Fold this sequence. Notes:
CATH architecture of chain B: Orthogonal Bundle
Helix content of chain B: 55-70%
Order of helices and strands of chain B: HHHHHHHHHHHHHHHH
Radius of gyration of chain B: 23 Å
Shape of chain A: elongated
Structural class of chain A: alpha+beta
Number of strands of chain B: 0
Distance between the termini of chain A: 9 Å
Distance between the termini of chain B: 80 Å
Largest interface: A-B, 9 and 17 residues
Number of helices of chain A: 2
Helix content of chain A: 10-25%
Oligomer: heterodimer
Strand content of chain A: 35-45%
Shape of chain B: globular
Strand order of the largest sheet of chain A: 2-5-1-6
Radius of gyration of chain A: 17 Å
Strand content of chain B: under 5%
Number of strands of chain A: 6
Largest sheet of chain B: none
CATH superfamily of chain B: Ammonium transporter AmtB like domains
Number of helices of chain B: 16
Amino acid sequence: MKLVIAIIKPFKLEDVRDALTGLGISGMTVSEVKGYGRQKGHTEIYRGAEYAVNFLPKMKIEVAVPSDRIDKVVDAIAAAAKTGQIGDGKIFVTDISHAIRIRTGETDTDAL
Amino acid sequence: MRKTLHLVAPLVVLTSASLATPALAEAAAPKVDSGDTAWMIAATGFVLMMSIPGLALFYAGMVRKKNVLATMAQTVVCVGLGSVLWFAIGYTLAFTGEGALIGTLERLFLAGMGMDAIHPAAKTIPEAVFMIYQMTFAVITVALVAGSVADRMRFSAFVWFCVLWLLIVYVPIAHWVWGGGWLTPGDNKPGILDFAGGTVVHLNAGVAGLVAALVLGSRRGYGTENLAPYDLSMAVIGTGLLWVGWFGFNGGSALGANSRAGFAIVATHLAASTGAMTWMFLEWWSRGKPSVLGMISGAVAGLGTITPASGFVLPWQGVIIGFIAGAFCFWACTKLKLMCKYDDSLDVFGVHGVGGATGVLLTGVFAAAAVGETAGLLEGNGKQLLYQLYGIIAVTLWSGVATFVILKVINLMVPLRVTDETERSGLDIALHGESIHS
């Protein structure tokens, strides 16, 4: 089992969700996050005061998938989230050692 | 035919006067007018709405998230405490008697203000309506000052400030300019033209705010940290309420439902619109983007600047005044403040102080006798401009010096600033024990 963590542009969330649904992925967790990478930030001006905003709003998606499907899932996210502009985000993949569905007690791939 | 009428009319008056003096005296007696009274009651509500929720939203939207409630609390306490003080002693000291510097105690706790009482300045409405209308001006003026010390003033110190500043600064100045004091124009006495509070409200609050900002010192992180506003949409809503409320502020200052009130409202709205657009285009041109904060700042600048002039000027002059207001206040808030390095957090001086003084001077330039019975520089009465300048100097000096002394005295009782830790963690939780979101 693998955990895919994708940081994407907020307006790309629906595209990514559609792509994953098309692959038969039936669940995910999203959170609104802030951060920066190569895109850095921007400046905001309020009357005379100029502020550098370093942390930009992004969307974080977490999806748990069986190991044999990981390449398709990563490719789908990458294709759906891509604009070609700086700040498109990143995808991280890690191993999951154990998974449990709370309601039924099913474990590992049965729980996904 | 006309000539005959003119000749006959004085005769008729003379005859009736000699024959029936009691009837004439009766006619001259003040009589409450239902239209005037209805408008003034409505206008009172409008001006109260400018404080809560208007100013509360305008200010709270411009501070950081952790200080939103503390900022609103300052406006609420000004309304609550200020109103009771006005009832107890503020009104009588500001608006009774003809003392040059201060009024009398004749209406202490509104003593003697019966159902049929009428104030000499507003002969067609009940004195109770005049009193509460003026009350709403007093409370919003104190609340305006709070913008300069946002994010850092201790609430208990602000409560003391509210009491002392209202009585020692606002009340005498209101008496000087409006209540029959040394700056009030009279039958044979020149004075300052200030229709709705360019000196009494805006310049006064602006100067006090600047002094308070200097005495308290800058916010932590001013110039180095990001102090961006929490929610400018709240400030836009607040501006809308201020803008509409200003119709009561300036239109109500005609003290009746009449053409002068109508002209005041027209000039007010035009100046607000022009001020907003001037600021917007200046910012667009100089910084590349037209900000919403810029538009609403320009609107409030136009409104503050037209305040003394509304009721004295023609509609096109309102447009010119709004344009000058937008340009001057833009410069004051974006250049002057940075040059002088003071942290007037919400630009009370830059908008209200600069706008108020500018408006008072422009009133001396533009005053049209056809509207307000007094001519200004453009109609050949250059002296009026000097009276206006005189008023500005007097109000600036008293407001500046008295505010400084009041703050120093309060500082002997309770520190003016919150602790460093409170300022970092936010005033809402530390001072009021609550936060906007749970």
